[in-house]
Amino acid sequence: MEKWKVYAKKADFDNISREFGIDKVVARIIRNRDVTGSESIRKYLYGDKSGIYSPWLMKDVEKAVSIINQSIAEKEKIRVVGDYDIDGVCSGNILVQGLEEIGADVDFDVPDRINDGYGINVNIIKGAYDDGVNLIVTCDNGIAAVEAVEYAKSLGMKIIVTDHHEILYVENDGETEYIIPKADAVINPKQQDDNYPFRDMCGAGVAYKLIWALFEKNGKSPEEWEKYLELAAIATIGDVVELKDENRIITSEGLKMLNHTTNRGLISLIEETGLTGKKISSYHIGFVLGPCLNAGGRLDTAKKSFRLLYTKSESEAKEIAKELKELNDERKAMTEEGFDEAVEVIENTKDMINDRVLVIKLEDCHESIVGIIAGRIREKYNKPVFVLTKAKDGLKGSGRSIEEYDMFEELVKCRHLFQKFGGHAMAAGISIDDDKYEELRYTLNTNAALTEDDLCRKVWIDVPMPFNYITDRLIKELDLLEPFGKGNEKPVFAQKNVKVLKIKIFGKNRNVIRMDLMGEEGFSMEGTLFKSGDEFVKELGEAFGEQEAEKALNGNENSINLSVLYYPEINEYRGRNNIRVVIKRYLC
């Protein structure tokens, strides 16, 4: 079940349109993204590198810079410890490459997903100590590693935590006590006493700020640290943090660089995935390049993905890019199998279909893909989801949430059940004893205050807009709103009572549907829908009758009318441009 709802946020759209020379439709979309006031709108539309906040505003940056510079001066060994996902390998490369540029003796390590689990741990610390490492710098992890940091300090090591995840806390007599590891410096803008202007960066964004501060302190020019915006942008999109405020600028500037990248590994991965010559967008990072970078840490080792971004060797880059593409193809097949199994568990386990929080155990699922499966299940059922699988010491799992359910907050309420947990409002990772599975399922559902309305999928419409309003100029203005992603979603337009004049089905798999459409104002438009053509025709037959569906396939007069959600674009084909709408959803 889903509801289509139209944004009704108010503003003086005429004035915004005049002030910034934009269409009122574009002004509405900007307001729908909660961007208000002239200064914020100007930054949203035309923000550049000058709109990225100074790293010196962030707590403990100055302290970390001093510690690192002293370690370099004393020729100490430094080890960067990252995470096994796209954010971890990008932030790891920013730190390692940046530290090397200022003369550090530095290397990189990352936990093994299966043997170590998430984040820095005692084994990683012990390995660094045995290797003669004096200073550890974490990236994209460490904020929850209280015991590991304590162990490092007991060995006489220095440790700097750079992270972006939520801060663990406990409630004592109504007072909230935040648990922060006792590292030499902790850089995380989510700390309660940090006055940094923006809290929602990814790990690579935080790492970028540290390198910026180090380079500035060591007399380097802005161009020398700004080159790392490319990796920060990839991680910002890949880690699905909000593309607002400075994240939007980091992503926009980084994408410009990516489209002319000199990074040998990125060039090879772009070639391997068939994107050479195409304008790389946030979509390509989220659904093509990013999954390949994540595949190393899922099915092999994240050191492979790290090495791809680090290497200067063309032959090595080509070899690793090929391996990562093959690993991602394998991951896709495994994900489909796991998704089907999860659906079967939900549908066939007594009363599970009625749970408000789905807690699914897939004992034989590879633990590296449980998060992806959780995301797929959330999309299908529009409920918070945890998918658990057998691990070395019990069960390990990942959760994906909906906007109405703060997953991290709910886990804190039952923290006594976990060996380890961490994450944020929309995603989390957990480890529990096998015999606590049913208790976890019961507790999360008992605590959940989700209503039926919370669990009803809401599809938000930016502007109900008839086809005759669409122009080349409007489509070009919509480009000002990119890059799209979480917090700055691609606009959604709606038109009801759309008459289907003709249907054609294309593609090797019959999954491209082209339609001649007519809006109720009598204006015709080409529409494209990416879906199984046979399934679509069957739906039309059930709603309007098989004869009417057949008439539409033959281009004859018929009674089919749809309400559609769409996005307009200029389609280039054989040197000719024409406006069309890409249909995202429809109602018969």
What can you see in these coordinates?
By secondary structure, this protein is of the alpha/beta class. Among the domains are: 55-227, inorganic pyrophosphatase (n-terminal core) (Alpha-Beta Complex), CATH 3.90.1640.30; 349-455, Roll (Diaminopimelate Epimerase, Chain A, domain 1), CATH 3.10.310.30; 459-587, OB fold (Dihydrolipoamide Acetyltransferase, E2P) (Beta Barrel). Helix content is 42%, strand content 22%. It contains 22 helices and 20 strands. It has a five-stranded parallel β-sheet with strand order 3-2-4-5-8, sandwiched between helices. Strands 9-10-11-13-12 form a five-stranded mixed β-sheet, with helices on both faces. A five-stranded mixed beta barrel has the order 16-17-18-20-19. β9, α16 and β10 form a beta-alpha-beta unit. α10 (229-238) crosses α11 and α13 (282-299) packs across α14 (302-310). It is globular and about 80 Å long. The two termini are 14 Å apart.
Q: What strand line-up does the widest sheet have?
A: 3-2-4-5-8
Largest sheet: 5 strands, parallel
CATH topology of the domain at 55-227: inorganic pyrophosphatase (n-terminal core)
Radius of gyration: 25 Å
Briefly note the structural class of the backbone: alpha/beta
SS elements, strand count: 20
Query: How many H/I helices?
Result: 22
Task: Give the termini distance in whole angstroms.
Answer: 14 Å
Which percent range fits the helix content?
A: 40-55%
Provide the CATH architecture of the domain at 55-227.
Alpha-Beta Complex
CATH top level label of the domain at 55-227: Alpha Beta
Shape: globular
Quaternary structure of the protein: single chain
Strand portion, in percent? 15-25%
Average residue-wise pLDDT: 96
Uncertain stretches of 5 or more adjacent residues: none
